[in-house]
Input
Amino acid sequence: MGHIRAYYEQITRMSEEEWLFISSHFTRRVFKKGEVITKKGDIEKYLSFIESGIVRYYIPDVENELTFHFCFDREFTCAYDSFLSQNPSEYELQALTNMVIWCINYHDLQKVYAQTKVGNYLGRFAAENLYLAKSKRELSLLKYTAKQRYLNLFDENPEIIEKIPLKYIASYIGITPQGLSRIRKQII
Amino acid sequence: MGHIRAYYEQITRMSEEEWLFISSHFTRRVFKKGEVITKKGDIEKYLSFIESGIVRYYIPDVENELTFHFCFDREFTCAYDSFLSQNPSEYELQALTNMVIWCINYHDLQKVYAQTKVGNYLGRFAAENLYLAKSKRELSLLKYTAKQRYLNLFDENPEIIEKIPLKYIASYIGITPQGLSRIRKQII
DNA sequence: CGCCGAGTTGAACTGAATCAAGAAACGTGG
DNA sequence: CCACGTTTCTTGATTCAGTTCAACTCGGCG
Output
């Protein structure tokens, strides 16, 4: 659980007391490669910190499943839309590898927000950064061709290209697996 | 300024004292149609509430200006990326109509966050909702064709279609003005 | 060994871009 | 209030990025 503390310390100082209060609400969970962490239609119960593993975010659909995000080691992961609104999720989270995560449930997090100043600050900071990341992605989708988006992934997040099956990457950058296969051929 | 209070009251209750503290930091500003509110390269000083008027968000470029957002009456408006990070803005805000806005500057907002519980809550709430809106837009860009995105605008935000020049709408849904003109012809 | 899913490749097709030109609407000054 | 220039919108012809459908290769695994 030290990884969570290290993560928080990058953002703001926190007293021992605050850390004990916050950390007491996290519990450990384990998932196998391929398992679904959060199902479409369920209400997201947990905000989770990834100790190890990779998560894929996708909208399931018999014909045309849509992958739109990945999370890695030492990041928080969550079906935020559902978690924030406490409505059923429109998408799913799947473990792409075996995983270990640390979870805090919705009500405990509300307690942290209500009872610690630092919790509230961290919550706002997290939401702001999620917003900034999505803004960047919006511009990427509007501004660049699929080929350019793929090349940008190399620079910004090579981990995605190294560790994730092509078909999911294709969906993530908004094209078909065949389309991405052709783009790759052009590049080499 | 009553509109701001009404807006806040939709989100959470607030004491008279808190309201007086918060509202004392807002100042009134006026812009003429076509004026630039926040310039690219400048650091965003203000978070602003729109009393009346329409704002366009865009990345200026001699060749290919990119419009990616609009704000209307009784919404907050801001170059958030710049405001949150206090780095120079990569985009601009322009008044599409004559406007009246109420502004709070960065340092005063930090005071509000530091000194009122309700301010912090409102800040987190705002960031979370900005995130949710961008998430929705991400999916719209990945999932639908330009034609479908245009039709969705009718349902979700007809104000945009009624009040905003076609060339900006085209950019917003990710196509050229010529492209949108053709799509329109198909629909009628 | 044979099966299955992931990735590649080819051919025909499509949505949207680009280039170019004309029509309509808009704003400003006389 | 009209006339003129500018901007916005439309339309046509051509090009291009990426899709779709289909067939094939490759590697992992029971």
